[in-house]
Amino acid sequence: MKIVNLTPHSIILYTDEGKKIEIPPSGTIARVHESTEIIGKIQVETDGNIPVIRKTLGQVENLPEPREGTIYIVSLIVAQALAGTRSDVYVIGESIRDKEGRVIGARSLAQL
Q1: Range of 66's domain?
Q2: Can you tell me the distance from the alpha carbon of 74 to that of 4, in angstroms, rounded to the nearest whole number?
Q3: pLDDT tens digit sequence for 56-83
Q4: Domains in the chain: how many in total?
Q5: CA–centroid distance for 103 within its chain
Q6: Rounded to two decimals, what is the model's pTM?
Q7: Core vs surface per residue 53-85: b (16+ CB within 10 A) or e
Q8: In whole angstroms, what is the distance from residue 6 CA to residue 96 CA?
Q9: What is the mean pLDDT of residues 24-43?
């Protein structure tokens, strides 16, 4: 299976056997258009108001057409915008963290 990374960062995956696989960015970044509208405000005691917005996800750009034998790793927001319409789109699953809590890789991929 060919894996295409449509994020701007290298992705490190670990196999069940403990082998480390690095998937570099492909150079293409899948993105989703967002629109926002103010739907209210929250008053914070005497400090003022904080706007509350509604985000709406729009069209995904830079996502190649499906290709046999190829899967695409995208950001969570891109996968959410696609809402399960593509079986070839994945996000990072279970993260692996170092002692300081930084993500250093993943044990799995996930679909939404």
Answers
A1: 2-110
A2: 9
A3: 999 999 999 999 999 999 999 999 999 8
A4: 1
A5: 14
A6: 0.85
A7: eeeeeeebeebeeeeeeebbbbbebbbebbeee
A8: 20
A9: 97
